Amino acid sequence: MRWVYLALLATLPAFAVHGQQPTSIALWCHSTSMAPDDAKTASIKPDPIEPDPIAGGEMIVNLQERTVSFNSFHIPFTRTDGTTVLFHGEQATRYEGLRLTVDGSIDLVAGRVSVTFEQVGNNMTWKLTCPPLGVF
After folding, report:
1. Average pLDDT rounded to a whole number, residues 51-76
2. CA 69 to the chain's CA centroid
3. CATH number at residue 90
4. pLDDT tier at 7 (50, 70, 90 boundaries)?
5. What's the angle, vertex CA 85, arms to CA 82 and CA 89, rounded to 5?
6. Residue range of the domain that includes 80
7. The pTM is what?
8. How many domains does the chain have?
């Protein structure tokens, strides 16, 4: 399966729409979300919090804008080497004055994504499986 992702990435420059190079990679994500310390504290918590399922979420890596977009987030990426994308940014929340920090990485070859949301007193990490849907 890994060779399929490598083939997709290798042909990325070959795709063209009206003479233009593709500017985005679409991923389809699913898995669960969990707080980073759930595994460590599950044995001492009487009722550990069950992770939330994440089913069918699209993620777009826009190479021209240098952004990663998912749900209502539009986060700039800080680095890419063709197989990995690292992103970091802040986004306002619906609560006045509070900002949410979003850090993450995308392994385009393995189709794995890790996203951490950090807010005072409430951190959560998503570990996702995100196979590429295609390039456009």
Report:
1. 87
2. 8
3. 2.40.128
4. very low
5. 150
6. 2-11+25-36+52-135
7. 0.71
8. 1
